Each structure stands twice: as C-alpha cells, then as structure tokens.
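Exercise 7. Given the components listed, write out the predicted structure of the assembled complex. Treat all entries as one system.
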Amino acid sequence: MKRKPIFPEFPHMLHGGDYNPDQWQHDPHVLEEDMRLFKLAGCNEMSLGIFAWAALEPREGEFDFTFMDRAMDDIYKAGGRVILATPSAARPIWLAKKYPEVLRCNDHFERNLFGRRHNHCYTSPIYREKVAIINRKLAERYKDHPALLGWHVSNEYNGRCWCPLCQEAFREYLKNKYQTLDALNRAWWSAFWSHTYTDWSQIDPPSPRGEMAVHGLTLEWKRFCSHQTVDFLKSEIAVLKEVCPDKPVTTNLMAFHDDIDYHELSRVLDFVSYDIYPPWRGADKHDIPLAKTIALYYDHHRSMLHQPFILMECTPSTQNWRPFNKLKAPGFHMLASMQAVAHGSDSVLYFQFRKSRGSSEKFHGAVIDHEGSENTRVFREVKELGERLKGLDALVGTYTKSEVALVYDWSNRWMLEASEGFQNRDKKLHDTVLSFYGALWDRGINTDIIGYDDDFSRYKLLIAPMLYSMSEEVGKKFEKFVAEGGHLLATYTTAMVNETDLCYLGGLPGAGLRRVFGIWNEEIDTLYPDETCPVRFADGEKAEAVDYCEHIHSEGAEVLAYYDDHFYAGTPAATRNSYGKGEATYIAFRDTGSAGERLLEEQLNRAGVRRLWDTPLPYGVTVHSRYDEDTEYLFLQNFSYGENTVETAMDLSDLETGEKLTGKIRLAPMETRICVLKH
Amino acid sequence: MKRKPIFPEFPHMLHGGDYNPDQWQHDPHVLEEDMRLFKLAGCNEMSLGIFAWAALEPREGEFDFTFMDRAMDDIYKAGGRVILATPSAARPIWLAKKYPEVLRCNDHFERNLFGRRHNHCYTSPIYREKVAIINRKLAERYKDHPALLGWHVSNEYNGRCWCPLCQEAFREYLKNKYQTLDALNRAWWSAFWSHTYTDWSQIDPPSPRGEMAVHGLTLEWKRFCSHQTVDFLKSEIAVLKEVCPDKPVTTNLMAFHDDIDYHELSRVLDFVSYDIYPPWRGADKHDIPLAKTIALYYDHHRSMLHQPFILMECTPSTQNWRPFNKLKAPGFHMLASMQAVAHGSDSVLYFQFRKSRGSSEKFHGAVIDHEGSENTRVFREVKELGERLKGLDALVGTYTKSEVALVYDWSNRWMLEASEGFQNRDKKLHDTVLSFYGALWDRGINTDIIGYDDDFSRYKLLIAPMLYSMSEEVGKKFEKFVAEGGHLLATYTTAMVNETDLCYLGGLPGAGLRRVFGIWNEEIDTLYPDETCPVRFADGEKAEAVDYCEHIHSEGAEVLAYYDDHFYAGTPAATRNSYGKGEATYIAFRDTGSAGERLLEEQLNRAGVRRLWDTPLPYGVTVHSRYDEDTEYLFLQNFSYGENTVETAMDLSDLETGEKLTGKIRLAPMETRICVLKH
Amino acid sequence: MKRKPIFPEFPHMLHGGDYNPDQWQHDPHVLEEDMRLFKLAGCNEMSLGIFAWAALEPREGEFDFTFMDRAMDDIYKAGGRVILATPSAARPIWLAKKYPEVLRCNDHFERNLFGRRHNHCYTSPIYREKVAIINRKLAERYKDHPALLGWHVSNEYNGRCWCPLCQEAFREYLKNKYQTLDALNRAWWSAFWSHTYTDWSQIDPPSPRGEMAVHGLTLEWKRFCSHQTVDFLKSEIAVLKEVCPDKPVTTNLMAFHDDIDYHELSRVLDFVSYDIYPPWRGADKHDIPLAKTIALYYDHHRSMLHQPFILMECTPSTQNWRPFNKLKAPGFHMLASMQAVAHGSDSVLYFQFRKSRGSSEKFHGAVIDHEGSENTRVFREVKELGERLKGLDALVGTYTKSEVALVYDWSNRWMLEASEGFQNRDKKLHDTVLSFYGALWDRGINTDIIGYDDDFSRYKLLIAPMLYSMSEEVGKKFEKFVAEGGHLLATYTTAMVNETDLCYLGGLPGAGLRRVFGIWNEEIDTLYPDETCPVRFADGEKAEAVDYCEHIHSEGAEVLAYYDDHFYAGTPAATRNSYGKGEATYIAFRDTGSAGERLLEEQLNRAGVRRLWDTPLPYGVTVHSRYDEDTEYLFLQNFSYGENTVETAMDLSDLETGEKLTGKIRLAPMETRICVLKH
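Answer.
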C-alpha cells in the first residue's frame, strides 16, 4: 500500500510553514533570527511567496526578486526546502486600478473595489495573462534552485464572479453542455412560471436582483463557477509544468468547501494539500466530537487522489478570526498534529512562521510570537513536535487501506441546498454524513470518502447519506455494486432527482433503486425542531426520529424497524433487501444517532468489515492506520483530556520506543502511540 | 339570505384546481392520464393558463394556443369546466429583455433583472399594452367555449415598484389628492426636520436610501401602490368585459396581504377568490388556534362582497416553501375543506393538479404525485372529498347572517406599522384582532370582517381592535352607530391619529370618540415582553395586562376594571359608557386573552347576540352557518384529533345522511356534520 | 473650584428646551398658549431654530425670519432667553435637489437620496457655503437681541460620508500625516496580503465592496471622518464668532458616540452640552445599574472641558424610538434631572416643548401634550421641577473635584473594535469601563473621565480599562505618573499596539509598561460565553474569570491572585508592582464584578482616595458633589423605588430647607437631598 513519496528527493516528514519575509525587509535582524529559530524549532520546510505579488512586481513589468533570492538561499543553507507559491491569490493595487476587469462582480452584478484576497475574476484574460507572466518569472528563476520542492499554486481558491466575462463564459459552457435550448428548457423545467428561454443571450446567472428559484440554473451556475476555477488553476499549472515539468504542484484546499467541486479540482493536481483550523475548546465534550469531524476532513483529502497529502496550514496556537479564539492546552498541538499524520498527512505545516506585526491577522498564532524569542510556550511545543517528526520519516508515503467508503457528491450537495421542500432551514446533509462517520471513528475503522466517479468495487460497504440527486448511470453503478455482493446503506431522500434536479417519476427511490432497496417511498413528513416520532425495532428496541420521516412501503424488503406514532405508525422505518449477491439497507428517518449506529453496526458485521483494534475502544480513543507492505502502523490516539486504557491481544510494538505493546495499554491525556503490527 | 350562484349555468360545488399541461406537452401519455384521473378524483373544474404566457406567445406577436385548445376540449369532454387565467403574473423573458421598463425597480430605485413571478411594473404602458393583447386573444378565442366559466385575472397580485414611471404616477396621484403642496405639507407635518416640499417634483417615494420616517409619505406610497395595482387589475378586466361581458371575473387574494387594500380591490371583482396554505401541524395545541385564524381569513373574504367566495388554491397534502412542510393527517384534508365551505366557499380547488417535475415548487403537494397513479394516499383523500362535495350542490349560493362584525382598515394597519411609539417591535394589531375573533369562534358566532366604508347598521355589535387611525367622518359613523343603539367594543390605541397620521389634539380618543367612550386617554405605558401589570375587575376577578397599559380617566363611563400596580394603580383599565341608545366599551390594556374575552362575553350578552349552538361547545369544536331562506345549515366541526361530544335541544337533521340530530351528538376526530335547522 | 458661569449675564439654572414654532405658524392660538405654559412651567430658556432651515429659507436666497422674530420677542417678553441653533443638521429639499453633492454617499459609494437628518457631506464646499450664509444671516439678525444667550451649532453631529470629495480630502489628510507612502505602508503593515500602496490615488476608504481588513486604514478613516466633522463645526463657529464674538457656542453631544472623537471636538467649543435619553424601566434592578451608566456619561461630558455643562435635551416623559417606550414613574423625572445637576449640569432642557402633531417623533414626550393643556401629569412634574431649579441658582458654575480618573481614548476604542483576535463578538470595552465606574458610584467618589492628552498629575488614581492601543509617548506619560507617586490600575489587553495598530514587539505590555507593571503578558486565552475560570486571591477569596484570561508572568510584581484551572492554573491573574514612588496594579482577567471591585477598593485605600460620604451607602444610594470655594454641595440621591437610610457623622445642612442633617437620614423613594458641607 505504500505510495511513492510526494518529494522523492526529500523523503522526510515536512515541518515548517508559510514564511513572509517580504513583510520584514526593513529589519535584517529579524531575518537572521528567523533562520536561527527555524533550525531550533526542528523545521525543514518553508512555504514562500504567498501573497507576495506586490513585493515581486511593485510596478507593472518591474520585478524584484531580492527578498525571495535571499530567502531561498537562507532556507537551503539552514537545511530546509521550499514549496514556492504563485502569488495569484491577491493582486497588487496597481493591477486592479489599471485593469478593473480583474476584480470580481458580486451577485448584484456590481464590480468590487480593490480589497481583500480572492477578489479576482477567474475568466478575465488580462488576469490570466498577468498571472502567467509572474508565474513564468518565478518558475524560470527558481526551477533549478536546490531548495525548490514543488509548487503551491495560488492560495485557498474560492468565490464566484458575476462579471460580464463570466456571464458570457457561462452561456458558452451551457451551449456546450446542452447543445439546444429545448434540451436546457426541458432539463430545468423552465416552463414553470413562464421562464422558457428562447435565446442563449437571455440566460443570466442567478442573482437576488433576478432569479434564484430555477434550481437547474442555480446548479449549473455553481458547477460553472467551480469548473472555471479549475480551468484557471489549470492555466496556472500549465506555465509551471512548461518551465519545470518535474516539480509536483498542489493548491491548498479547505474541507468540503461549497464553492468548488474538489473531486473535479483534485484531478489536475499532483498532490492534495489541506489547511485546517479547528475550534478546539479544551474540553472532552467539545473536542471529541470535533476530532471526528476533523478526521472526516483528513480522510476526505487523502481519498481524493488515494495517496498521502500535505497538511499545508494549521496554527501552532490560536486563530484570530473566529468569534472566540482559544489557546490550545499544552500537549494538544502534538495530538492534533499526529492526527493529521495518522490519517495520511506527510507534513505538519503552519500559517505562519512569524506573526505579522499589523493588519487583519496580526493576532493569528505563529511559531514566533511578537515577543520574538524561543522562550514562549508555543515555540517549545513546536520544537517538541519537530523533534518527534524527525523520527517518523519511515511513514512517508505509507498509505491507508479502507473497506468502507462514504459517498459524497458536490452536485448533490448543491441541489439539496437549493431544493425547496420538506424542511428549508438546513437540510442537514453534513450532520448526516458526520453521524455515520463518527460511528466508524468510534469503532476504529479506516474509511474513504469518495465521489460518484470513484471505483465502488474496492469496498465492502458503501454508505450513501442523503444522496438526493444521482443520474440513472450512478443508480446503475450502485445497482451493480450490490448485485455483485456489495453492501449499501442509504438514507432518507435517496435518489429523488436526477443530475439536473428533475424529479424521478414512477415512485421513489428513483434511478432504478426502487428495486434494489425493495421499497416505495411514497411521502416525506418533516418534523419541527421540537417534534420527534418514536421508532421501534423488530426486537423491541426503541429509537426516536427527528427532522425526516419518510412514509415508505416494503416491496419485498425485510422491515427492520417501524414508526410508532403519527398516521404512519406501524409502517416501515428501516428496511434491508437482498439483491443479487449483496444487500441494501434503507433508513427512512433521521435520528439523533443511536438507530443509525445500530443499523450501521449490523451492516458492518454482515459485510465482514475489519475493526483495526481487537477490543472495543473507550470513548474518545480511536485507531487509524497506514500500511507499508506487510507492516501496519496503528495510530492509537487518546482525544480525551483524561487518561484512558485500551486492551489488545495483538502483538504490537511501539514505533518510537520499541516497547512491546500488548494486554492493557495506558494512554496519558492527549497521548498518541504508533503501534507497529506485522501482517 | 341566498345569493345568486357565481356561475349560474354550473351551480355545483367546484372541485379541481390549477392545471398546467403546458409543462407536459412532450408527453401525451401524461395528458391522457390527467383526464382519466380528473374524472376518477371527482373533479369538475380546472384553472387553466396561469403563468402560461411563454407557451401562448413564445415570440413577440406569435401565438400558439394548441395546448390550451386541447385542454379546454378535453376538460369539457371529461365533464369539467374551466376558469381561465390571464397570464400577466409572469412575463416571458423576451418581453423583459426587449422592454426593460416592464420589470420593477426595488426600493433602492434599481431595476430588477428578469426572474421570479410578480416582477412587473403596474404602471408601465408597454406592460399594460402587451397584457391587453394576450388577454384579448384569450377572450376572443374562448369566449364561446362551453367549458369557460369565468376569468382568473393574473395571480396573487402583490408587490411594489419604485421605477421612474411609478414615481411620476405617484406624484400625479398626490396632486389629485392634495391639490396644493401646502395641504400636503400640513397633512404630513413635513416641517418636522425641515422636509417641507416646495415643488411636486421633489417628492420621492420612501426608500432606505432616502426617507423612511415621514409617516404621511409612507402611508400615501402604500395607498398609491395598492391603488395602482387595482388600476392595473381594472385594465385587465376592461378587455375581458369588452369581449365577453357575461363571464364573471376574479383574482385570487391572500388573507390580509400587506400590499393591497383588499376592500378597495374587491370592489372591482364579480366574485372574490382566495388561496390558502395553513401550516397545519397535526396536534391540537397548534391546529385549533390555527383553525381560528383560518376561519377569520375565510370570513374576511366572504365579507368583502357579502357573498360566497371561491377557494381558489389549497394543497391536498403539503407545501414546499415553508421552513417545515408537514403532511396532513388522513382525514384532515376533509375537515379543512369543509371549513372553507362552512365559511362561505362554493369550491375546493388545488394548486395544483399534477406535480411539476422541476423548478422551485416541484415538491409542492398536488392531486397527482410524481409517482403518477391513483394509488397514493393523497389521491384517495381527494377522491373521497370529491364524492362528498357532489352531495352539497344545494349549498351553492347560500349565505351567512352575522350580528357581529370586526372592523379592519388597511390604512390603519399601514399607519400603525409605520408609527414610532409605545413599542416598535410589533404593534400586534393582528394578535389583537385574532384574540377577539377566537373568542367568537369558541362560542359559535357568525362574524363579518368589514371596513370603514361598510354599513355598520347591519350589526348589533362592532368590535374595533386597535383602530389607531380614523377620520373625523369615521368617528362620526361610530358615534351614530352607538347613538342609535349599537354596541361598540374598542381597545387601546383607538383614534389616536386622523387619516393622514396627524395626531388628534384635545385629548384621546380623538375623532369625537372621547364623548362616546366617556373617557380621556392621557398616556400610554408600554410593557417589556418580560413585564406584566395586574388588573382587577370590580367583582374581584383578576387579569394581567401585557404590552400596553393606557393611563385613562373616566369622564362619565362606568369603570369595569382597574390597574393594580405601577403608578396608575387604582385607575381605570376598562370602561363602559352609555351613549344615546347604545353602549361603548373601552379596553385600555392588552391581555393574553381572558380579560378581553370576559368583556366581549358581557357585551355579547348585553347586545343580545345569538349563539348558533344552544349549549357551550367543547374546546376545538365550533359551529358556523349558511342560510337558504328558512333553512339554516349548521356546520358542526371538530378540529380536535380526539373525539368530542356536543349537546343540543334543537331539532336538527343531518344534511347528508338524513339522520335526526338532537341530544348528545358524538363527533369523531376531525369530523364535520352539516346539520339542517328549519326556521 | 467654582467656574465662571457659561452665561454670565443670565446666571440661572436653565429650564426649557427645544421649541419649534415653525411647525405651528398656521395656528396663532397655539403660539399664545406656548408662552402661557412656558411661564406656568417655570421655564426660562428655549432652544430655537433646530431643523428650521426650510422655514427660514424656503427658496434659495429667499429668507423669512417672521416666525423667529416673533419667537425671540415672545420668549424674551415671557422672561426667557434663547440658545439659537444653526440649521445645518437638516437641509431643505431644494438644496439637496439642486446640489446633489451636499448629500452623503454611503459606504458602497452610492449617493443617498434626500431624506432623514444628518445626511450631508461635511466636505462639500457648497454645503459649507450655504450653511455659512444662513448662519451669518442668523447671527447678524439676532446678535443684539436681548434674548440671545448663545449658539447651538447644528444638532447631534454624527455619521460619515464616502463621497468623492470626502475621499479626496481623506487622501490629503493622509499625505499630511504620513508624508510618504513608505511610512504609511509600514504603519499599516500593508505588505500583508499584497496591499502595498504605490500611489496616493490608490487609497480608497474602507468599504464592504472593497477593503475592511486593513486596520490602519479603518482607523485613519474613522479619525479622518471625526476630524472632518470637527473641521465643519469649526467653519460654522467661525462665522458666528466673526459676527458676535461674545456669545458662547456649543453643539449637543451624545455620550461616547462612535463617530466623533469628542476629546478633539470639545476643544473647539466654549461649553459642552449633552442630549440624554435613558431607557428607565421603573424597577430597581434595571434602573440602579442604568443610573451608574448615566452618571458615567455626565461625568464624561463634565470632564471634557473641566467645567459645568448644559443638559441640552432629555424627555420629560417617554421616548418614541426605542423598541419599548415606557412612562417614567411620578417623581422619577425629578430624580433624573437632579442627577444631571449633581454631576455638573447647569440646566435641565427638553426635547421638546410641544409635541409635534405628525411625522416620526410625534409620540416623543414633551412638556405640552397633544391634549394641549397644563392638566397633564407630565406638565405638573415639569412645573414642580421648574420651581425647584429656581432655588438652585447658587450652584451655577460650581464645579467638581475628583481624585480618581478613568482614561478613555477614541482611537483605542476604534482599534479595539476593528481588531480581530481573542473574541470578535464584542470586545466589551464599555462593559469594562462601566464595571469600574459602577464601583466608584457605589462608594460615592467623584470621578473624571479623561483622555490621553489630559493632565494625569491632577489625580491620585488612574484607572486604565482595556487601553489596548497607546503610543510610546502615552506609555511614558503613564510611567512618569507612577514614578512620581501615582497609582495606576490597568486591565487585560493593555498596550498591545501602538497608535497605528502595529503590535508592540518584545513582550507585552508594550509602550514601556512591561517594567512599570513588572509582568510579561505572554498569551491571551478567550473564554466562550458559557465558560468561566476560577481565580483565587492570596488570602483564599475566590473569584471567577470570564471572557479573557491572560497568561502572564511576574517579573517582580507581587502576585495578588492566581488562576485555579486550565493549563495556566497557578499562574498570576492579578499583580501589583511598586515603581518609583507609585504603584501599578494589573488585572489579567475579566470578571463579572467582584474581583475587579476588590482590587479597586484596595487601590483606592492605598492611594488615599476620599469617599464623599463617611459611612457605607446602601445599594442604590450615591453621593456626588460640586464645590464653591469652601462650600461643598453633596447630592445625596436615592435611585431606589423604595426608601433608604444613610448615616453620617458629618455636620451637614439641607440647601433647600436649611434643615440640619446628621446621624440617620431617611431618604424617600427617588429622593434627592442637597447637603451643604463647609470645609
């Protein structure tokens, strides 16, 4: 299961982060201190040049690489390497003032003023040209620099632009996709409320000033904006690859960001990188559930390219932009960093190395505080982590084997959010995803997060939470998966609409899945936040439905649970159907956890999914693993601020101490142990 | 009391609803199924052509009536009739793109983009012209079609437009009304904050970008927008009447909609129709109070023209656009439909007959589900109702006799909402209206909801909730009503300002009512939401004031209750005054129900108002009646999800079963019985 | 300590208020009644001409002073005097329509429409010119009128304008201040996110359409807008002084208004005046805390010029624009009015004398109600106060001696609000200020509220709440104050940034105060609203931290209290350091009151601050004093709605009754006694 390291010439766990010496050119002492403290902290990487365009090209066509030349050399001399950024995430003022088209228009079709980051049109030919020029300069200047590891393209792509150029590109995108207006009108059901388009030029993007209710339009606009961002990214990469074809490229992603279909985007990267800022609160009741969410995000980023990823940004101490910004308890930075590694990261990198002295993020945590020395608590914790990471180089490139996958699709999410029906406050897709993921985390089960275009056959069990929208083709893919022996666990709102948000006719679930699940979903009842509906399992166990209660009929499926109130009392609430060589379970109601967990547990057992640990884990403790041929590294992590004890009959040893581990193992608060298991 | 039926040539209870075959032209099988299911469901009416403009006139001046020709014929062949819509509620895109003036401007004076429904300027000459053309085409084509019953003009008129054309029309409206700027400045008290107008052209409509605090301006703008909408409606009707003068016209209304003075609007209709979508929740504690609100709305629509109305839209199952959209319990659709009939509806019509496959309302309930067959719960309930309605043709045209009326005025509402004083979160006009109406509902008393221009002399008791604004003339009308023997029950904030929102001088209540009530209202104290003030009746009964406590003085009135705290402890809280041959009760405080109910009960008795039922009704049960000469039809309805029993000494029979009804009568959950009483 | 009276020719306590006869010119009877009731109410002042521009100049260049001539004469004849307003706070419509530049642009750079008050550009040359013309006319016409006391310039200056003229003036302001773009870029740390300015023309003010995150920019924009308002005020004053140099000028201020640095503004006034509208609620639990806030505001206005101020506006009964507008209990108006006098006001003036009949404030309390007579409760209370004030002329000009000052700085507040860090919902500067002030109020201690440019050496104890931002120079001033024997009490977030919001390097507190406090503030932890952290004093007393817990280290300071939980358990939470001849206490955590109060109490004792009363005061009772050479007037006020008793060994007499006051003194609900103490 081992993958080739991302940077074969530097096969180390990376430790370091964003470095912005352009802010400190007036103070050479600071720059010297940076290098002393870089080494002292056990760092080996700097991410350079993010937001440095104004420094690199202070006037149009005038370039100044002084600060970057020095930084590249200094870092290399200090034993470090550089991931070099393209500066496109923030443009110099002169560029925006001279070429207003580079700035975005908002959803009222008004041009933004200069300001912020991420305020540029992805379509603008001028912006693309200016970015290509500076990118080429950077690539040509540093392509042979020994410090250069790879490319950090732009920064945290996000946002949408409603400018005339984007509008025109949107119309072209639609023409390519639908070919005829008839096809488009049919797909969007635009006859409703007399919205039939009779000329391509009539199509405006959704706007609060105009149309927000044609769901097909909203969907395609989100798809287009995502597509256009990826297209821009490709144009950035093209220049870099042309000049230095061997250096891997990435851009830093952000969990399940709404703006971009990361499944589409990741396909153009050499490796995935990730920025993460969890609001840890210093108490088990907050941080253990949060640890599950974060684990889900890590697994998602690892699954995109099915290889290790780079943790590109995190904070060594606190954020500054949340409503409340807390300090991490001593030891927690170690735990959180090791969690990233456990889930497939080959790095722990920070934003940023030295705190900025002014502007909006001046209070964001950093390795070096405004105080300036190594005598801070945070610096000491960073240094301790640096020392530990040096011992983990063997893990670089090791990968994860998952028998379970959760299926997630961006178009499904966009349609679900845009849909008007059942309840309109929050459809709770992510809550549903998380409730299943959390149960897997509690059980110590490696999980992949995959898209509709992934290979389903790799897995024993697929979890399909709220897959409201799928095409007939995806329906067939699920059908084939089950028919060939796979286990499928799906929920309320499955397959209600097709890929352009048209409802399936002939009874739900659509896309051919009515047969696969052996049920008909006739109606969906919505519960108010203060309402519940009792549910009873066949063996008498009770549960409680919230939010959604579908009124379904078994058409051959075994009924696992029944509603116990409302007019649908006595009708099925959960079913399981044998189909071909496999099984399909349908959960018709949302619950607050226990019922879904019970049904998942049963399905895990029926599918024969392996738990990584051979005994039940206490609350707050989890295990995830990475593989290297016949060696498995089990990361045993205690996310509690209290001690915990686990037991095992496996024959394990501690990777870092060599200690033999078996029987009862005591875990200190926030402790991570890496256990070696030979297969 | 019987009225001529709305459609004398088709004197049946109508059952059916909005039908949009223009969305399904690509699938002839669907169109055939529609007719089969129309008959099967016991339907006899379709509302055709709402939002069909894009289908009827796909390009400017190119008309295509194919789908409508077929639908008219098919429906007629299936034994049905058609209420035909004018398509003005949504315009085709080509129209908006070619003539931008047809789109509205928002309150920032910005032109909307194409999108949504109800996005057109009511002033635009081009829009009026284009609407007139398509309306004339429709009228000419179908005027002699045997299926045509009448006209459904546009759809749910609402909204306001701030475009230059509307602004200019507003100025003309003001010139006509005030004649001189002096008169206007005086009426609006514009000297305050130096807002004196010295030229008509200086008058801009209220806008967040400009002026929101000149109450006279705000009031007249709302009056103008309402007036202009009615003017547009009149222009639509004119064409229809010119071509087919005999067909009655309506437009579908929406309860107490803020945008339009329905008293003014209803004057131009042949009959009133109503769209209603209550958020029934399936539990007595929510649905019984809600049933009272809905009953109020029905009574209001019946009272506008004092004749039966058409329930033009409701859903047979669920809405899709509320925050939470619940299914109706089995049987509830029957109850809710019979409630409409009880209050004067001669129909039960739906939006819509077949669920749209896409766009924003695709999950809105309909007679035919996406599933497509008659095998759904909803279809079965619709069919059951259809069968019952066939037995109620005798009720068509029967009317209601009310001895009590609630007085409601749109200008009063607009001024109260715009006013700044006492409390500014929610003046609670509608809560106050509802608290009196609910007490009447509990007692089984027919009630009319009337305006200032209605005939007061028809009633024994007038309830005047929060009539903050009235002219001297209206004051005189109330004075005359009481002087001649009428009973008047009024509340806090009565007659504070005149018809342009100028405060009455010389002590409140103004408009001459200080003498009628025999009190002086010196000050009004506002209570915070967490505050109450105890109140004590003369006989020691206690109550609790909330929101408003007026500090009043008796000037001859009998004091019925006193405040028991605050600095106004011991001063009057409610009074009754004999004036001429009548009585006027004043309630100076808001309470949460009991005190107002007690005072109402006393006044009902003193006025000799008849209860329809001869014994008290249990909670959740009510009676309303319709008359046909010497026959009264008492609708006895149980709005509870549990059983109830009522008792009577009257000699009744069941209209539908012929069963004799007297003594104890058991009502099943959600049951409606129609009891015949001969006078 | 006595100051020269503001109006030496009329050395009386002023009683009266805003008078707007321009609204009533159509009704001479009203104008006559006004004068009758003016005298009857014991009034001696009217504030005339506020918002009267439309009446004074109905058309450009056409002036009409009829109403004002009459009012000036009538008031004088009635024994009264006039403070005459310039009308610039609201412009006539003709002016706005003809010269659109006089209207403001909002923060989206969009021009407002005519409307509201305070909707004019402070930069517009045309507006300045037109204001100068009308001001000169007024000054010339009335400069010798015997009724004229002084000038009320404009009204409640506030707001900001983003128009092109203001933008250009902003750039000029920056050029003058920073001289070079290099200096500006460095000060604003604009290299962050590539915001480096390379031309002055690139600088746009902060806007939601553009930049909101460059804190230096936000800060300077707020400073500029304040500066420009003061500049406008100066231009108004210049004309007045030119024509009638001897009449004192003021403008009415509003507590700690965010828009304008009142320390800067007050420097150009002859006297300070203040408008106050507290939401009194009629219950001790609301009104006693509120009384402390109001006392703080009064002390603040008195401290600006260190002389008595004029209470320019208050309501005799209720406001109309709050969410809930309550009546004042009988007697409360007396109490609240005497509070103003206790804190240094030489007047009680109202908005307004007669209630407007229409428009937005028609329900605002006034001396004369719409009812129109003297027979209202409110009129009687006003009259009672008028009679009492006549006996207090001896107090005119007497002043206050304070040994304690609270330090408050507008730039600090702006920076703290703009800053992103720790917690971002509400930094709670004002809560912190208030918690210390409230403890001083409870103890009966005169307090000044001063700025960074005030003379520190006047005080024994300085309280420095959340002085997040200060320059090195201010730091030195504090250092000198302590070194020379002063006592300094400071809190969390002290001296984190300099005067352009750049963080201090080298360890906090910055600005040289690390040595003064003898601590290093390493980190700041933020608590969520549902979190607390226990704190323990050296003697075992317990407290509870909320919001902020700084993780500090003693570097010589005595530790007064320790944290008792979190990872910083056992580290210092409060410290005291001897420095030079003085002491500096640092409170590293926010608490809900008790801990801060204890530390304040200790420091008051150590500094030898005198309590005005010689025994502890019961809850709700306070004492503040004014001095006249060797006589001190102690205002003993009971803010409770119940009775209270105080005790004293001082030898006092009642100013108004002559009664000897010593031993137990009983205070009726809401009673104020003015006790004479001879020194």
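Discussion: Chain B touches chain A through 57 residues (CB under 8 Å). The first strand of chain B starts at residue 14 and ends at 19.
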